[in-house]
Write a structure and sequence with these properties.
The chain has helices spanning 3-15, 46-49, 97-109, 136-145, 157-160, 232-240, 252-262, 269-289, 301-319, 326-338, 343-347, 349-381, 386-396, 400-409, 416-425, 427-439, 447-467, 495-510, 522-527; strands spanning 20-21, 59-67, 83-92, 121-126, 152-155, 161-163, 168-179, 199-212, 218-231, 473-478, 483-488, 515-521, 541-547, 551-554, 569-578, 581-588. It is α+β, with helices and mostly antiparallel strands. Helix 2 links the parallel strand 1 and strand 2 (59-67). Bound molecules: serine.
Length: 589
């Protein structure tokens, strides 16, 4: 079976069971500037899981492009990828556990569909804790289709609970694993969820029945929903009987091409790791740049991820002795693979190619200098400080993460506080650099959009002060004219509340407070009270913007320097757009 057949039969299976086929949403979340990428099929569907009626009805299915940066440092092993496609089926307050599990089992094992040997199928279900009981209903459904008790594992929240980020719709889940004969169990305790590669997770059925609030508590959802996700690459590997995703048609031509370019005959384990990183990273960067927003490599937001992926690929290709221009020929293979499926890939081919050529030239110009500088600093001082990392970032274009990796190889941990301090001290330089950077791909971030972005942070903080911490961001969208902010709250605001929110925001604007940026480890930022939306999209080190002690949010920016630059804030419209979601439109004059 080829990938396209897998996509087609999945959609056919669920279409026959009353689901409407919907298109993949963009890799760029539509309404949420705080989140970098769509990281799961359910991500664009959050409003419907919270109760808003879906225009296509209560059952939908699709293939969704996803990108996860959380595991970026793991790429190179046999399982991790940054870009991947996810097959999914959803019930919005319609069918429940029994149907979802019975269909999952049928699709996986029936000879009419994937035809996996039922004896190779193991499942995990939620073991229960103080927030939610043990999921016996799911386990019983698995027993009723014939899975024996010894292949049903009860695991804790860490393994069997799905939530995107810190708050929002969530619930227990059941995961399905296929055993790979070629990779033996790593020991007597090897079980589904173990990373050794023997058990490969192919599908996850989530039983959305709770909503997690910002304060960490759970409340039952008004309706129970199903969210399932099946990774195309992994499932394809299992169907084709190959041990890893890199042995499928998605990666074979890319890997062969890289091997050929390297001119080598023999490949060590380390070579193979580098090759996997190169093909994963170039593929992901191509899929990001293919979006009609035309975001190329830059030093901010999604553009920075593109830069980080490409620069790492170039560096690793150098280690394999591959010459200049390899990214374009790899991109050609990726574009060819996806062009008929996602029309934007074909449409934006020229843009992608131009970006690759320019980025490689730009990086090569500085890379050898940067590495020489790194070595010199290390030789002279015996360490790499946060300040050195900052210098390498601003003056030599070496991504922070690459400096961190190079330092790690030498057993050095970069001091992030020092990096942040230097960043602040050189704010003026970095501000100028930032303006320059916008020309390289974020041109749509005009001055007015940046102002409205800062105003959005102030609005969220003010709403939480007036209405309480129940308010959390559900989506946001900014145009030249206005900001739009969707948030969780059970009713519309009263005129007095609107007035209070406006006053709070305008007072902060009048006080002309400095907008501060810091880089912090994710956990520390959250401990300090920074608001975050989807955890999935944040790396280990996060960028945090704060305005005095009024607002603190995880965000890639950009923002204005001081609140005094914003002008007068006014709420123009409010609307209830679904159960528990309110939308506000506001302007700056
Ligand atoms: N949201 C779940 C996941 O991404 C199921 O789709 O695994």
């Amino acid at each position: 079976m080829r990938a396209q057949e897998l996509r087609e039969i999945y959609l056919k299976f669920f279409k026959e069971r009353g689901h409407s086929v919907i298109a993949s949403a963009s890799l760029f979340p539509e309404d949420d500037p705080t989140v970098l990428f769509t990281s799961a099929g359910m991500h664009p569907l959050v409003p419907y899981l919270l109760g808003q009626p879906h225009p296509e009805g209560k059952r939908v299915t699709n293939v969704q492009k996803c990108l996860r940066t959380t595991d970026i440092d793991e790429v190179g092993d046999t399982v991790h990828l940054t870009f991947f496609e996810m097959l999914g089926n959803w019930s919005f307050g319609d069918y429940w556990k029994k149907e979802a599990i019975t269909w999952s089992y049928e699709f996986l094992t029936s000879k009419n569909w994937l035809g996996f040997d039922p004896d190779k199928l193991s499942v995990t279900v939620f073991a229960g804790d103080k927030d939610s009981p043990r999921d016996d209903e799911a386990a019983d459904s698995w027993r009723s289709v014939g899975i024996p008790d010894e292949r049903i594992y009860f695991l804790s929240k860490e393994d069997n609970w799905w939530i995107a980020g810190n708050a929002g719709p969530c619930g227990p889940c059941t995961e399905m694993f296929i055993e790979v004969d070629e990779i033996p169990k790593c020991g007597p305790d090897c079980r589904p969820g173990c990373n050794c590669g023997h058990f490969v997770e192919v599908w996850n059925d989530v039983f959305m029945s709770y909503r997690k609030l910002e304060d960490g508590s759970y409340e039952p959802l008004k309706m129970n929903s199903i969210d399932t996700g099946m990774g195309v690459e992994r499932t394809l590997a299992m169907v084709q009987g190959v041990p890893t995703v890199f042995d499928t048609e998605f990666f074979i031509p890319l890997i062969e091409h890289v091997k050929e370019l390297s001119g080598k005959e023999e490949f060590t384990g380390e070579d193979n790791r580098l090759i996997r990183i190169i093909v994963d990273h170039v593929r992901s960067a191509v899929m990001i740049m293919a979006d009609d927003r035309k975001i190329g490599p830059s030093n901010v937001e999604q553009g920075y991820i593109v830069r980080r992926l490409l620069r790492k690929a170039i560096h690793d290709a150098d280690l394999l002795g591959i010459g200049q221009g390899f990214m374009n020929s790899l991109a050609d293979i990726v574009i060819d693979m996806f062009k008929d499926l996602y029309s934007e890939v074909k449409r934006n081919r020229d843009f992608i190619m131009k970006c690759l050529t320019a980025e490689e030239a730009k990086f090569r110009k500085t890379l050898s200098k940067a590495l020489r500088k790194f070595d010199k600093i290390y030789q002279d001082t015996g360490t790499i400080t946060g300040g050195d990392a900052f210098l390498l970032f601003t003056s030599f274009g070496l991504p922070l993460e690459m400096t961190r990796d190079l330092a790690k190889e030498k057993g050095i941990k970069i001091d992030m506080d020092e990096f942040t301090k230097q960043f602040e001290e050189h704010r003026e330089i970095s501000r100028t650099a930032t303006q320059g950077r916008f020309k390289g791909g974020l041109a749509e971030h005009s001055e007015q959009i940046v102002k409205l972005h800062t105003a959005t942070h102030l609005l969220q903080a003010a709403l939480r002060k007036v209405l309480g911490n129940e308010v959390t961001q559900n989506g946001s969208n900014i145009t030249e004219e206005r900001l739009r902010f969707d948030f969780t709250f059970s009713r519309k605001l009263t005129p007095e509340e609107i007035e209070k929110v406006e006053k709070l925001v305008n007072d902060v604007i009048k006080q002309d407070i400095k907008v501060n940026r810091q880089f912090l480890p994710y956990d520390e930022a959250i401990k300090k009270g920074a608001l975050a939306f989807f955890k999935e999209n944040y790396g280990e080190t996060v960028s945090v913007y704060s305005v005095g002690d009024f607002s603190m949010e995880l965000c890639g920016g950009p923002h204005v320097e001081r609140t005094g630059l914003l002008g007068k804030f006014k709420i123009r419209k409010q609307k209830k757009i679904g159960a528990g979601i309110v939308r506000i439109k506001a302007t700056l004059e």
